[in-house]
Amino acid sequence: MDPKSESKSNDSGTGHELSDSEEKRVYPSGFKLTAIVIALCLCLFLCGLDQTVITTAVPIITNEFHALEDIGWYTAAYLLTTSAFQIAYGKLFTPFDVKIVFLIALAIFEIGSIICAAAPSSTVLIVGRAIAGLGAAGMFPGGTLILVHSAPLERRPALLGIVTGTFGVATLLGPFIGGAFADSVTWRWCFIINVPLGVVTAAVIAFFVHTPVHPSYRQWTIKQKIAYTRLPEILVLVAALVCLVLALQWGGAVYPWSDGRVVATLTIFAVLTTAFVAVHIFLPGYRTVPTEILRSRSMWFSALFAATSSGAMFVAVTYLPLYFQAIKGATALQSGVDVMPLILGFLVMSIIAGIITNITGYYNISMLICPVLASIGAGLISTFAVDTPSSQWIGYQALLGFGIGFGLQQPILVAQTVLEEKEVPFGVAFINMMQMLGGAVFVAVAQNIFQNKLVTQISEAIPGFEAASLLQGGATNFGSLFSEEQIAIVLPIYSDVLNEVFYIVTGLCAATIIGAVGTEWRSTKKNTVKSEAA
């Protein structure tokens, strides 16, 4: 079968059908099934942990590597590769054995983690984070598909809830664990911990899981399978996104916006993006994104909602620990405790939003509540000062968490509701990609503003001060750079600059209203949903 013709008939390319019917298939049970579920829980725990474990350790890392200018890269590099390769893995899981692709993704994640743990410099750590993100992109969807192959339909909802629930728990525990490692042992344990857990996961999946390839793809050659995945088109998209993030990191902070390097990266981004779009318009047989998604108003608006809400969350989680450590003098572990109001508020409201959607059948309600609560919370956070009392920073963070929690997961339900069943897997991958991409792009924007404003304002306040020494001194290493009198001047400036970063969070939260209003009202309780056209 020609992969191009197959792509036209099943444009999504991400659903991995079972080779046998539900009735004929023999699923693992007892010890085998328990071991598989535990392994998948470990897998998703690693995915969730890696998103937040580094947040409270970042100030200590910048102190060790003398790389204040790289704060944003530690998060952006991971999110960039995770988002860019969501589509690639969605394609790979269709013609190839799910287990093999999953194990390769896990191996890539482990290699990236080992590089991070052994990193002798900030640059190597960033490279390791990018490699780990490349692997993580395939772990979540691969784990879900393995569960589909391992449990009968009637048991999947409960088991899926258990497995995906560990992701939320890991996200919650990440700042605690990262802070504890950074204070008690070394920040490198944030990545070392991934190795033994990953080895256990790989061993269980390798020995106990069987994921047969659908008969339609068994006769395909490796060349046909690779052609089906559209890897060249995806690599063009990845290159475009890398150029965009580089330009956003460099422009105005490292180099002037008129500098040739910034202009070149922006130009390459524009050319590659134009080429990617042109392929989808003029060469439908080579489309990476299915036609139904391209024509869906709700998918595009919900993708915008996903990017802005996720971007707000990642910027907040990245820079709030810096506020507590640099301004409030908290340890890494204590800063993990201090950001709990945000994360707990997010998790609690995510559950409540799910209940509301189940009762009403409409995700739009939660999407409309999100910008109201989140914008108010983010706006209040942008008033933080050196002497802000705990009653305020706890309440303001909780309010932001409530708002983002109401909306962040709703775009996934949009994809499941407005798309035909065969397009849903790709639709979910597309939303996940936009969430991660929003984090990568806006963390880069935040880093640009933070670095540029901090250097400029401190240089103006303390004449003769060398800006380079500030960037090389680390995020909280003030004692070696300033006298006590100067620190009294620097701390309020540092706090004000962080507030400018939180203005980005406020703007993103307000921008979610565009996606919320633009998403069509569709009931999740309807059994049949026609394809939506713009």
Automatic annotation (TrEMBL):
Its record classes its membrane topology as: Multi-pass membrane protein
Domain Major facilitator superfamily (MFS) profile intervals: 36-524
Kindly give the Pfam families that the UniProt entry links to this protein.
MFS_1
Q: Does the keyword Transmembrane helix apply?
A: yes
Q: Where in the cell is it found?
A: Membrane
Region described as Disordered: spans on this chain: 1-21
Q: Which PANTHER family match?
A: MAJOR FACILITATOR SUPERFAMILY, MFS EFFLUX TRANSPORTER INPD-RELATED
Q: What name does the UniProt record give this protein?
A: Efflux pump antibiotic resistance protein
Biological source species:
Apiosordaria backusii
Its organism's taxonomic lineage begins at:
Eukaryota, Fungi, Dikarya, Ascomycota, Pezizomycotina
